[in-house]
Automatic annotation (TrEMBL):
<dbReference type="GO" id="GO:0042132">
    <property type="term" value="F:fructose 1,6-bisphosphate 1-phosphatase activity"/>
</dbReference>
<dbReference type="InterPro" id="IPR044015">
    <property type="entry name" value="FBPase_C_dom"/>
</dbReference>
<dbReference type="Pfam" id="PF00316">
    <property type="entry name" value="FBPase"/>
</dbReference>
<dbReference type="InterPro" id="IPR000146">
    <property type="entry name" value="FBPase_class-1"/>
</dbReference>
<dbReference type="GO" id="GO:0005986">
    <property type="term" value="P:sucrose biosynthetic process"/>
</dbReference>
<feature type="binding site">
    <location>
        <position position="210"/>
    </location>
    <ligand>
        <name>substrate</name>
    </ligand>
</feature>
<feature type="binding site">
    <location>
        <position position="116"/>
    </location>
    <ligand>
        <name>Mg(2+) 2</name>
    </ligand>
</feature>
<dbReference type="GO" id="GO:0006000">
    <property type="term" value="P:fructose metabolic process"/>
</dbReference>
<comment type="similarity">
    <text>Belongs to the FBPase class 1 family.</text>
</comment>
<dbReference type="GO" id="GO:0006094">
    <property type="term" value="P:gluconeogenesis"/>
</dbReference>
<feature type="binding site">
    <location>
        <position position="91"/>
    </location>
    <ligand>
        <name>Mg(2+) 1</name>
    </ligand>
</feature>
<feature type="domain" description="Fructose-1-6-bisphosphatase class 1 C-terminal">
    <location>
        <begin position="200"/>
        <end position="333"/>
    </location>
</feature>
<keyword id="KW-0378">Hydrolase</keyword>
<dbReference type="Pfam" id="PF18913">
    <property type="entry name" value="FBPase_C"/>
</dbReference>
<dbReference type="GO" id="GO:0005829">
    <property type="term" value="C:cytosol"/>
</dbReference>
<feature type="binding site">
    <location>
        <position position="276"/>
    </location>
    <ligand>
        <name>substrate</name>
    </ligand>
</feature>
<comment type="subunit">
    <text>Homotetramer.</text>
</comment>
Length: 337
C-alpha cells in the first residue's frame, strides 16, 4: 500500500473537524523543506566545508559551530517570506527576528534550535533540528511583535517537531493529535509517513543522563540513578541499561522508539541555572511531543508545559520519557521537599 507523504498527512489533519489551519500546514511544510536542506548540508560534512567552529559565541555563551549558523540562516531564509509568521526566535539569535516589512506577516511564531547536538557535529554522530509553533497574540494593527509575545506556556504550542540527521533522516511531528514520524526518501526528496502512531512505553529499563555530572546532582536524582545502578538485586528489582548520545534529539528519538527516561536535571556546577537545556526551543517542543506520545515531562517536579516563561532563552531542568519513571523521579523530588 502506498505510504502517505507529509503533505497528505497535513491535508488530512486540516480536514478534521477541529482541524489544523491551512497556515500551520503550509508553515510546517516550509520548515520540513528547510530541514531537508539542513540535512543535506550535514551530510556533506568535510566535503561541504561545514565542520568546525567559528570565532563567534552565541547568547548562550557557546562557541558557535559553522552548522549552528548555517542551519539558523537556512531556517530564517526559508520562513521569512512565506507570510505565515509574525516573527521567529532561535537558540542562535539573541533577540527575536521580526518578519521584514517587505514581506506579508502571518499570525504564528516559530521558535527553533537549528542544530541540536552541536558537540557531535565534528565526530559524525546524529544531530538534529527542533522547532515549536505558537500563535502570535493579536496586536493592535501595526504594533511590532516583541519578545513578550513569545513567552507563552508550552501547553499553548500549536505544533512541534524535530528532524534527526542520522542513518536515516527523519521528521517527527505533533499537531496535537498524537505523534507521527516521516522518513526522508532521499531519491524523491519527499517525507514519507513511516510511523503512524508513536507511543512511549510507560515503563523502561533504560535511562539517559550525563553520568560525569553525578557528584553535582541533587539528592533525588542521585537516589533515582543509584537505584537504577543497583539493578535486579536492589529496590527496583530489575537491571537498567544506560545511553547518552549528547544530542537531545537523538536521545529523545530513541525514547519515542523504545521507551526510556531522559534527564538533564539541575546540578551544582552552576547553581543559579535551573538546568542546561532551554525551555522555549528544546524542552517545550520535546515535552509536547513526549506527552502526545503518552509520556511525561517535568522540570523535576512541575509539568514543563505549564511553566510560564520569563525570558526567551531561559533554561530548565528536564526529566522526560516513560511516564511511570518520570513520575517516580518527580515523587523523589517531592519527598526531598
Ligand atoms: P545544542 O547543541 O543545541 O546546544 O544542545 C546540546 C544539548 C542537548 O542536545 C544535549 O542533550 C545536551 O546539550 C548534552 O549536554 P552535555 O554535553 O553536557 O552532555
Ligand atoms: Mn539543543
Ligand atoms: Mn543548538
Ligand atoms: Mn548550542
Amino acid at each position: 500500500m502506498k505510504r502517505k507523504t507529509l503533505t497528505q498527512y497535513l491535508v488530512e489533519q486540516q480536514r478534521q473537524a477541529d482541524g489544523l489551519g491551512a497556515e500551520v500546514r503550509l508553515l510546517i511544510e516550509v520548515v520540513a523543506r528547510a530541514c531537508k536542506s539542513i540535512g543535506h548540508a550535514v551530510g556533506k560534512g568535510a566535503l561541504g566545508g561545514v565542520l568546525g567552529s567559528l570565532d563567534s559565541e552565541n547568547v548562550q555563551g557557546e562557541v558557535q559551530k559553522k552548522l549552528d549558523v548555517l542551519s539558523n540562516e537556512i531556517l530564517l531564509e526559508a520562513n521569512e517570506w512565506g507570510g505565515h509568521l509574525a516573527a521567529m526566535a532561535s537558540e542562535e539569535m539573541e533577540t527575536i527576528h521580526a518578519i521584514p516589512n517587505r514581506y506579508p506577516k502571518g499570525e504564528y511564531l516559530l521558535l527553533f534550535d537549528p542544530l541540536d547536538g552541536s558537540s557531535n557535529i565534528d565526530v559524525n554522530v546524529s544531530i538534529g533540528t527542533i522547532f515549536s509553533v505558537l500563535k502570535a497574540p493579536t496586536h493592535v494593527a501595526g504594533a511590532p511583535v516583541t519578545e513578550a509575545d513569545f513567552l507563552q506556556e508550552g501547553s499553548r504550542q500549536v505544533a512541534a517537531g524535530y528532524a534527526v540527521y542520522g542513518p536515516q533522516t527523519m521528521l517527527v511531528l505533533t499537531v496535537g493529535k498524537g505523534v507521527v514520524g516521516f522518513t526522508l526518501d532521499r531519491e524523491m526528496g519527499s517525507w514519507v509517513l513511516t510511523h503512524e502512531n508513536i507511543r512511549i512505553p510507560e515503563d523502561t529499563r533504560e535511562f539517559a543522563i550525563n553520568m560525569s555530572n553525578m557528584r553535582h546532582w541533587a539528592p533525588p536524582v542521585r537516589r533515582y540513578i543509584d537505584e537504577c545502578l543497583a539493578g535486579a538485586t536492589g529496590t527496583r528489582g530489575k537491571d537498567f541499561n544506560m545511553r547518552w548520545i549528547a544530542s537531545m534529539v537523538a536521545d529523545v528519538h530513541r525514547i519515542l522508539t523504545r521507551g526510556g527516561i531522559f534527564m538533564y536535571p539541575w546540578d551544582a556546577r552552576e547553581p543559579g541555572k535551573p538546568g542546561k537545556l532551554r525551555l522555549m526551543y528544546e524542552a517545550n517542543p520535546m515535552s509536547f511531543i513526549v506527552e502526545q506520545a503518552g509520556g511525561a515531562a517535568v522540570d523535576g517536579v512541575n509539568r514543563i508545559l505549564d511553566i510560564k516563561p520569563g525570558q526567551l532563552h531561559q533554561r530548565v531542568g528536564v526529566v522526560l520519557g516513560s511516564r511511570n519513571e518520570v513520575e517516580r523521579v518527580a515523587q523523589y523530588h517531592r519527598e526531598a521537599g
